[in-house]
Design brief:
Layout lengths: L1 E10 L38 E2 L7 E5 L5 E9 L2 E9 L6 E10 L5 E7 L6 E4 L3 H12 L9 E7 L2 E2 L11 E2 L4 E10 L11 E14 L4
Parallel strand pairs: 1-13
Antiparallel strand pairs: 1-5, 2-6, 3-6, 4-5, 6-12, 7-11, 7-13, 8-13, 9-10, 9-12
Length: 217
């Protein structure tokens, strides 16, 4: 069985700097003299860069049968880094774990402000004939014999499993030079008593980690 999951973390910030020019005038009734005080300042560009660090990459681990496999690909666009994961699970007990290091390589302190789709249900698409396709999909996505889906996933950040959202994260700050790991684990339930008759493609949601400028400092 082959499954593919896509996830990304977005980078969002807004920095506003204002430079004022002050004019001071001193006047007298008969003799007049003006004293002007003017000022200017240069606003330098600060580097904002959060993503998979350039000196390391995504790491994976796997367990179960010898058919288990996992591949990753990292791509960057403006304001967004995407990690694509493709895994193969064949038997109950098979599992893969993908660790995504997220590093602040910029000059601005950041904070994790939101995690989206951390508990969105998976979707399944069976590859068998029409009469068994739905049954195969239900085994993997709904009930593999123990009132639970055959395949499930968990998301953790900074060592904490995310079950109710951003509130689970005890230390959302990501300071300059700091790295924290997002870990996605996908497993085929080892207590499953039903298996599909043909491969089922499992799609996980795009899990999004959103970072903002840390305004607390």
């Amino acid at each position: 069985m082959q499954q593919k999951e896509n996830r990304s973390f977005k980078i969002i910030t807004a920095i506003a700097l204002c430079v004022a020019v002050l004019c001071l005038a001193v006047a007298y009734a008969t003799l007049s003299q003006n004293l002007e005080v003017k000022g200017s300042a240069d606003v330098q560009v600060a580097n904002w860069k959060i993503g998979v660090p350039s000196d390391s990459g995504v790491s994976t681990s796997k367990g179960g049968s010898d058919k288990v496999d996992v591949q990753t690909n990292v791509s960057d666009t403006i304001g967004k880094t995407t990690v694509d994961i493709t895994a193969t699970l064949a038997l109950p007990g098979d599992h893969v774990e993908v660790t995504v290091p997220i590093k602040n390589e910029g000059e601005i302190d950041a904070v994790l402000s939101d995690i989206q789709n951390y508990n969105t249900p998976i979707s399944c698409k069976g590859q068998s004939e029409a009469e068994t396709k739905t049954a195969d999909e239900n085994i993997i996505c709904q009930d593999a014999g123990n009132s639970a889906p055959g395949v499930s996933y968990t998301v953790s950040y900074g060592g904490t499993t995310i079950t109710s959202g951003i509130g689970d994260v005890t230390a959302p700050e990501l300071g300059q030079g700091e790295t924290k790991n997002a870990v996605i684990t996908v497993k085929y339930d080892n207590t499953a008593t039903k298996i599909p008759t043909a491969p089922v493609t499992v799609t996980l949601p795009e899990i999004t980690f959103t970072y903002d400028q840390d305004m607390s400092n």
